[in-house]
Specification:
- The protein is α/β, with parallel strands linked by helices and 319 residues long.
- 37% of the residues lie in helices and 18% in strands.
- It is built from eleven helices and twelve strands.
- Strand 11, helix 9 and strand 12 form a beta-alpha-beta unit.
- The protein is globular.
Length: 319
């Protein structure tokens, strides 16, 4: 099990050594997100603005407008939760000649229901719907620390606004260290012909476990890591739809507006097939101790066992 926040901080320090234009900002959660380590090495390029998320976004935008590559971080419930206006009008809307938006990377932690003990008020399940609707933003949800490291580097090298959501809990490794990541390109982790499971974040491991269980019953299931929510990989989704005939999506987000919605929108326009979305069922979360988080996820059907169940039911509806 590995920690996304530690990997994020480590990668920021590495790219900070390579590029003096990189600056890092936080909002009183810099110890939790480990970004304070960047500040110890580069104190003149590190800014903790306190509990003021609107200022966090606006200062990041100003630094980006001055030629910096700004990484701004806090918990997902606060960003975008408390600063949508500043994100939209301060980062996404201003566009220098020939470019779209400003060069700000919003990287948050504590997304989804697995935040656990902080309860429903702090379990962010609406952020992907918010961020993918804002023009010029690209949206990522990494499944493991290898993905975090590669995507942070990708964001630092590609101009423009990004939003990336990390998990609070430690996560298992699902990718090989040599796996390449591209904006708008999903990754096929397992091939299959009977159904596809498209997952993101911590649910990718669950999808692989579900595919293994289905294989024991003679059902061949394809697994896609949809880490790039926006832009979505419409080509790979269409290929999966044509070749497997049905699809299950899984995420730590409300089923309305999240990755499952993005997948459904894309597939319905290209090659419609039966799809089932797994995620928070338009309900808020609730408090759960760390050892109770699996129970909370189970309450919302976010388990490998439910993926198996939904795949079996969908296969009977294949066109």
């Amino acid at each position: 099990m590995t920690d996304m926040r530690s990997e994020y901080a480590k990668t920021l320090i590495q790219i900070g050594r390579e590029n003096q234009k990189v600056v890092v900002l936080g909002a009183d959660t810099t110890d939790s997100l480990k970004t304070s380590e960047f500040g110890k090495e580069f104190p003149n390029r590190f800014f903790n603005v306190g509990i003021a998320e609107g200022n966090l976004v606006s200062i990041s935008a100003g630094l980006a407008a001055s030629g910096k590559i700004a990484f701004a971080s806090t918990y997902a419930i606060f960003l975008p939760g408390r600063a949508v206006d500043q994100i939209r009008n301060g980062i996404a809307y201003p566009s220098p000649p020939g470019k779209r938006g400003l060069n700000v990377k919003l990287v948050v932690s504590h997304g989804g229901l697995s935040v656990g003990p902080d309860g429903g008020s702090h379990q962010q399940i609406e952020d992907i719907a918010i961020m993918r609707a804002i023009p010029n933003f690209r949206v990522f949800i990494p499944a493991d620390t290898f993905a975090v490291s590669k995507l942070v580097r990708l964001m630092s090298n590609e101009y423009g606004p990004f939003y990336m959501r990390m998990a609070r809990s430690k996560t298992p490794v699902v990718h090989d260290k040599d796996q390449e990541f591209q904006t708008g390109k999903a990754i096929t982790l397992r091939d299959g012909s009977d159904c596809t499971i498209a997952a993101c974040g911590i649910t990718v491991r669950m999808a692989l476990e579900a595919a293994e269980m289905l294989q024991q019953e003679g059902i061949s299931c394809r697994v896609l890591d949809m880490f790039s929510i926006k832009p979505i990989d419409g080509d790979l989704l269409e290929k999966a739809a044509r070749e497997t005939g049905c699809m299950v999506t899984s995420e730590e987000h409300n089923i309305f507006g999240g990755m499952g919605s993005a997948v459904t929108e894309s597939v319905s326009e290209r090659y419609p097939i039966p799809i089932k979305r797994i995620g928070a069922q338009d309900m808020f979360g609730e408090s759960a101790r760390d050892d109770e988080i699996p129970m909370l996820l189970e309450k919302h059907g976010i388990t490998s066992f439910n993926m198996v169940k939904q795949v079996k039911e969908l296969r009977s509806r294949k066109l």
